[in-house]
Design goal:
Largest sheet: 8 strands, mixed
Strand content: 25-35%
Distance between the termini: 57 Å
Number of helices: 9
Helix content: 40-55%
Number of strands: 16
Shape: flat
CATH topology of one domain: OB fold (Dihydrolipoamide Acetyltransferase, E2P)
């Protein structure tokens, strides 16, 4: 406290310093304006802080030039204090907005068995990966392929699309079928983004997270698919499609925008789209043929014809690359853990049974 009184009684600040503080306070006014905006407080006029801050410093300098420096420090510190308060308010408000959003679009709960399997995978694969040493290459590649082969709508669609023949609608047999043709709307609906007329849409909402390097990552909040009953037509005839449980595969993105901490994306099925559908051909109570969800094989999906053709053309190349990557990863790991000697112009890799000592492997696993 004595040092503070000594400061006011000591050498006074010069006029140039006071003017500099007044000009610098205009920069502080930028932060004040932004922070009050977070509080949803409308500043009238908008240049209020740009005038108020210099006036406070100038008025204080009339009482004591050193008092002007104290006012400047208080204004500068208020930016940090108000900023922390604004961050807390924004977080609380964001949680409220999230709750209101989830009331409108309820998020499906993850089944308990999936949560349990997830925890088991974390506590099993993690230590195994750390203890594997150079064989981590194999684990990474194998893990990627296992994940890619897990049951999913897309994997089931690709499996049956590769084996099922494309049927003509006029000669359609009952059971699992693959048909290709043009979409005809029975009832039009409106998409969430830009109110576009369509047969059906897939609407995706993701939360945006930004790391310290400014890179954005996205986590899914809502994934909603809505579709009206429609007709698929080829050169031989047409058949209605019951869209209950219909999955969209490779459907092109139609619109996307970000607002606040969320990103919104939609994928549309439109009239006259050329598509391929895999589902069950059956008969309704009125003896009308229809394509619907296949309960036993759990497959019912629609994909653009162009995307399916592209996939079929690139599939052999992708499969060859996958096989080559697995073989390369395995031999790379073997070479890294094997003793290598150079004899003349030859590189000799010695494979010893001891390198595959599982007792040592599991002892490393326990230590990790």
């Amino acid at each position: 406290m004595g040092e503070l009184f000594d400061f006011f009684g000591g050498e006074q600040l010069g006029l140039p310093i006071v003017i500099f503080l007044m000009v610098f306070s205009c920069g502080i006014a930028i932060f004040h304006t932004v922070i009050f905006g977070v509080f949803n407080i409308t500043i009238r006029p908008k240049w209020l802080f740009y005038a108020l801050n210099p006036v406070l410093i100038g008025g204080a300098s009339l009482l004591s030039p050193n008092l002007a420096l104290v006012v400047f420090i208080v204004l500068f510190a208020s930016v940090f204090i108000l900023g922390i308060i604004a961050a807390i308010v924004a977080a609380i408000r964001g949680n409220d907005d999230e709750r209101e959003f989830l009331k409108q679009y309820p998020k499906a709960k993850m089944p308990l068995w999936k949560k349990i399997l997830g925890y088991i995978a974390i506590f099993t694969i993690g230590p195994l990966f750390l203890a594997s040493g150079p064989y981590a290459f194999v684990i990474i590649i194998a893990g990627g392929f296992i994940i890619a082969m897990l049951p999913s709508s897309k994997n089931r669609f690709k499996k049956y699309q590769a084996t099922l023949p494309t049927s003509k609608i006029r000669s359609l047999a009952m059971g699992l079928v693959e048909v290709q043709g043009r979409l005809i709307a029975k009832t039009i609906m409106t998409a969430p983004i830009d109110n576009i007329q369509c047969i059906g849409y897939k609407y995706l909402v993701e939360r945006i997270s930004t790391d310290k390097d400014g890179r954005d990552s996205y986590s899914q909040i809502i994934c909603e698919t809505r579709c009206n009953e429609f007709i698929i037509e080829d050169e031989t005839g047409s058949i209605p499609v019951n869209p209950d449980k219909l999955e969209f595969i490779w459907v092109e993105m139609d619109g996307r925008y970000s607002s606040g901490t969320k990103r919104y994306t939609q994928y549309l099925l439109k009239e006259n789209d050329e598509v391929l559908i895999i589902g069950k051909a059956s008969v309704r109570e009125n003896n009308e043929a229809v394509i619907e969800h296949e309960n036993v094989k759990n497959v019912f999906a629609v994909a653009p014809k162009s995307a399916v053709n592209t996939y079929n053309q690139t599939r052999p190349l992708v499969n060859s690359f996958a096989l080559f990557s697995c073989i390369l990863a395995f031999f790379t790991a073997v070479v890294l853990v094997s003793p290598v000697t150079i004899v003349g112009d030859r590189v000799v890799v010695k494979l010893d049974a001891a390198m595959f000592n599982w007792e040592d492997f599991f002892s490393k696993l326990n230590r990790s």
